[in-house]
């Protein structure tokens, strides 16, 4: 695999050259730059590049100075100049400084560019790789091609040991040193080719002999990754995560397999203690959905069933190696359907329910499956408590309205409990929590208030009031009034008369 970067301050030129190269089986464009200084910083940062394709006239750095720096610091094996200048002396100076080819922009074609790249590859890149690889030349055929026909892409990511949320480098290690370390390990062990693309995750194109069995390749891949992990742990205080694609035969699949490796890295969501994730479709089975039952939400045992259903769903997704982002999306939609169904069922409490729905997006940002499961379960428990309390409060309000409408009647405790669909002990407990008074005290206070209303209007005798209030006799009403207010009815009427300065009716 030939690693290439393109440098040109004209965006159309960069796009044109990249279009010629992309899709070629043995070429990887690692980055494009509009600035020579940015490209030089990238190269000096340790990124391994085989060929630099650059314009010679750049606004921020003289092209000849750039070529000299690349050659003096051994930053790239090959250099191709693509320029508008047709001055022979200018081209000769570039070639003398170490450029391998000088092509006029107006003469650049896909065929010509690839011809120059193949020439540099055959004359300079392949021999260098053969010398560095263990067993060297045995790994290369007479045509100068690698004697292997099977590959796997391993995408690398560093994660802080102290904080699983921190990805890439945490600041404890110099990236340039790390790139050199990884490149040296890959070359020394003959694993394949190391890539550090611009603004993308680092990755390795692992190479295996074509005759090797799938089992042997899997063992070799695990050995390679174990070696990488052990070496990195010696030098940096970071966890090296490796996500490996499945094995493939055609290099044109590399971009697709890189994405597969990235997807494997995201499996860290399910198992945060693990560092090696390889594509394996053996666990594939029928996909399941997540649909909690809103109709049974207030029933006893619903939370236990929800916990089991959520755990089974997430375990199923882990076994299928589902992309965590897609799992969260499925979970988010399933929970939203549940929330809206619940809000429709309990319309009087819809604002309360939909308020909990607003918390779902934050929960879905959980970095690992255990935290997501914990936070979602906790929110459902809180919603259950809040909704049950609200429903009980609504029931109490209905009971109070009924008592108010029938305050002149003697509503027994058992009848009130039946109205709430609660047992008498549970009703008494909820009633006191809601009103702050026992049922008997509340009813007596409200009936005494009604007696006061009749007394205040001054139209009724005590016998008439007792009859209106359905007391068995007037004496019972008088005793209740005294017990509740601390004064007799006669004393109350005197107080009322003094306050109003008028007659309050017969005693």
Keywords:
507 residues; alpha/beta; Alpha-Beta Plaits; 4 domains; 53% helix
Q: According to CATH, what is the topology of the largest domain?
A: Rossmann fold
Task: Please give the order of strands in the largest beta sheet.
Answer: 2-1-3-4-5
Please report the total strand number as a whole number: 10
Helical residue percent band: 40-55%
- Helical/strand content category: alpha/beta
Span between termini: 111 Å
Tell me the fraction of residues in β-strands, as a range.
5-15%
Structure description:
The protein is α/β, with parallel strands linked by helices. Helix content is 53%, strand content 12%. The chain is built from 19 helices and ten strands. The protein has helices spanning 11-21, 36-44, 63-72, 88-97, 110-132, 175-188, 214-235, 254-265, 302-319, 324-345, 350-357, 360-363, 369-405, 413-419, 424-435, 439-457, 462-468, 474-485, 489-500, and strands at residues 2-7, 27-33, 49-54, 76-83, 101-104, 150-160, 192-195, 203-208, 238-244, 276-278. Strand 7 (192-195) and strand 8 (203-208) form a beta hairpin. The model is unreliable at 134-147 and 164-173 (pLDDT under 50).
């Amino acid at each position: 695999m030939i690693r290439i970067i393109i440098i040109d301050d004209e965006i159309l030129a960069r796009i044109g050259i990249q279009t010629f190269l992309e899709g070629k089986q043995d070429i990887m464009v690692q980055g494009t730059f509009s600035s020579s200084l940015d490209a030089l910083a990238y190269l000096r940062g340790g990124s391994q590049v085989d060929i630099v394709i650059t314009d010679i006239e750049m606004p921020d750095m003289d092209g000849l100075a750039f070529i000299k720096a690349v050659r003096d610091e051994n930053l790239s094996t090959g250099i191709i100049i693509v320029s508008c200048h047709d001055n022979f002396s200018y081209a000769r100076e570039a070639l003398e400084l170490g450029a391998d080819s000088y092509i006029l922009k107006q003469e650049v074609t896909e065929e010509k560019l690839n011809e120059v790249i193949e020439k540099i590859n055959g004359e300079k890149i392949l021999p260098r790789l053969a010398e560095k690889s263990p067993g060297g030349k045995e790994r290369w055929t007479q045509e100068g091609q690698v004697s292997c026909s099977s590959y796997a892409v391993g995408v690398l990511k560093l994660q802080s040991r102290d904080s699983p949320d921190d990805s890439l480098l945490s600041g404890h290690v110099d990236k340039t040193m790390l790139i050199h370390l990884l490149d040296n390990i890959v070359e020394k062990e003959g694993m394949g080719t190391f890539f550090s693309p611009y603004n993308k995750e680092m990755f390795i194109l692992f190479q295996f002999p074509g005759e090797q069995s799938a089992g042997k390749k899997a063992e070799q891949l695990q050995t390679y990754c174990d070696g990488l992990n052990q070496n990195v742990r010696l030098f940096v205080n970071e966890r090296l995560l490796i996500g490996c694609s499945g094995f493939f035969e055609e290099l044109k699949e590399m971009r697709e397999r890189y994405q597969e490796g990235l997807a494997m890295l995201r499996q860290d969501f399910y198992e945060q203690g693990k560092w090696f994730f390889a594509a394996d479709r053996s666990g594939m089975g029928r996909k399941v959905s997540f649909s909690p039952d809103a109709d049974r939400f207030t029933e006893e045992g619903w939370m236990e069933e929800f916990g089991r259903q959520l755990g089974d769903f997430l375990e199923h997704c882990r076994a299928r190696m589902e992309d965590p982002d897609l799992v969260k999306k499925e979970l988010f939609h399933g929970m939203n359907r549940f929330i809206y169904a619940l809000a429709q069922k309990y319309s009087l409490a819809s604002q309360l329910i939909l308020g909990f729905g607003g918390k779902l997006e934050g929960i879905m940002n959980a970095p690992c499956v255990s935290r997501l499961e914990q936070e979602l379960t906790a929110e459902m428990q809180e919603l259950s408590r809040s909704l049950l309390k609200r429903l009980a409060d609504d029931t109490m309000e209905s009971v109070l309205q009924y008592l108010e409408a029938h305050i002149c009647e003697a509503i027994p405790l058992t009848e009130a409990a039946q109205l709430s669909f609660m047992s008498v002990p549970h009703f008494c407990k909820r009633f006191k929590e809601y009103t702050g008074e026992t049922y008997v005290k509340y009813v007596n206070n409200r009936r005494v208030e009604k007696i006061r209303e009749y007394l205040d209007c001054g139209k009724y005798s005590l016998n008439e009031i007792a009859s209106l209030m359905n007391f068995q006799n007037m004496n019972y009403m008088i005793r209740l009034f005294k017990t509740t207010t601390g004064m007799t009815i006669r004393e109350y009427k005197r107080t009322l008369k003094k306050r109003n300065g008028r007659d309050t009716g017969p005693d």
